[in-house]
Design goal:
DNA binding, DNA-binding, 216 residues, 52% helix, five-stranded parallel sheet, Rossmann fold, CheY-like_superfamily, Sig_transdc_resp-reg_C-effctor, alpha/beta
């Protein structure tokens, strides 16, 4: 029997947090192991409980969700799925740079929340086309980026890895990539892991943004 996905919920609004916990606990394959009302507590509990995933709000007291995400990812305590409304760009971009495994809109339907948790737990990250397009659009709207993507970063990738990266940029899942490129899903996962390591990226979302920026 596959172990349940262990989730830590970090959200400062008690009513919202209770709703998220209720939805997550409705799934037999998901286990809520802890709750945090601020970023500092989220980091403490992630270190103590070592959950598979932290569902992280970006706006929280004591320590914001971006800073908390950065600490949790840097110390490899857990993957982080960020809750966002997309109305504060600096939080979204900050979470992306911090290594968040994905972004989830706060008005997401319950079934989509559960599937997002399962997707991140599988190591795929959340790069739904609508989310990816919004991220890219916001990046493109900025007149000057702190760092511009250099096409030379792709030189170390194999042809197959470039194809997989292109598919990630479109927001395709591993299963969808496998179907398009006619390869086993396990092989796709291997390619994704290797290209992330070669490009020194922390998450699939970062890879999607890079692919879009480079136009591949």
């Amino acid at each position: 029997m596959t172990p349940a996905i262990r989730v830590l919920v970090a959200e400062d609004q008690s009513a919202v947090r209770a709703g998220l916990v209720l939805i997550l606990r409705s799934a037999p394959d998901i286990d809520v192991v802890g709750e945090a009302a601020d970023g500092e507590r989220a980091v403490e509990l992630a270190r103590e409980l070592r959950p598979d995933l932290v569902l992280m709000d970006v706006q929280m007291p004591r320590l914001d969700g971006v800073s908390a995400t950065r600490q949790i990812v840097a110390q490899q305590m857990a993957d982080v799925l960020v809750l966002t409304t997309f109305d504060l760009d600096e939080y979204v971009f900050g979470a992306l740079r911090a290594g968040a495994a994905g972004f989830l809109l706060k008005n997401t339907e319950a079934r989509d929340l559960l599937e997002a948790v399962r997707t991140v737990a599988r190591g795929e990250g959340i790069v739904a086309p609508a989310v990816t397009r919004r991220l890219i659009a916001e990046f493109a709207a900025k007149p000057v980026r702190e760092t511009a993507a250099d096409p030379a970063v792709l030189d170390g990738l194999t042809r197959r890895e470039r194809e997989v990266l292109s598919c990630i940029g479109e927001g395709l899942s591993n299963a969808e990539i496998a179907g398009r490129l006619e390869m086993a899903e396990g092989t796709v996962k291997t390619h994704v892991s290797r290209l992330l390591a070669k490009l020194e990226l922390r998450s699939r979302v970062q890879a999607a943004v890079l692919a879009q920026e480079l136009g591949i």
